[in-house]
Amino acid sequence: MGYLTTTLEIKKDILWRVYLSFIVMILLGVVVLGRAFYIQQFEGKFWSRMGDSLHLKYTPLDAQRGTIYSEDGNMLSSSIPIFDVYVDFGADGLRERNGKRFKDNVDSLSIYMARLFKDKTSGEYKKELQLAYKNMDRYYTLKKKISFTEYAQLREFPLVRQGRNKSGFIIDPRDKRINPYVLLANRTIGLSRDNATKNVGIEQSYDSVLRGTTGQRLMRYIAGAYMPVEGAELEPENGKDVITTLDTYMQDVAETALMKMLIGNNSLHGTAIVMETATGKIKAIANLGKQMDGSYAEDLNYGIGKATEPGSIFKLATLLSLLDDKYITKNSIVDCEGGVKQFYGLKIHDTHPNHLLTVKDAFAASSNVAFAKMADQYYHTQPSKFIAHLHSFRLDTLTGIDIIASSGKPLIKKPTNRSWANTTIPFMAHGYEELVTPLHMLMLYNAVANNGKMMKPYLVNSIREYGVDIKTNHPKVIVEKICNDETLAQVQECLRAVVDSVHGTAHKILFDTPYGIAGKTGTAVTALNNKGYNKGNKIYQASFIGYFPANQPKYTMAVVIQNSSESKLVYGADVSGTVFKEISDRIYGRFLSNKKFIKPSADTTQYNYFGIKNDLNSIFYTLKLPYTDSATGGYWRTTSMKNNVAVLNMPVTTTTGAYIIPTVVGMGLKDAVYLMENKGLKVTATGRGRVLNQSLPAGASFKKGQTITLFLN
Question: pTM, whole model, 2 decimals?
Answer without folding.
Answer: 0.70
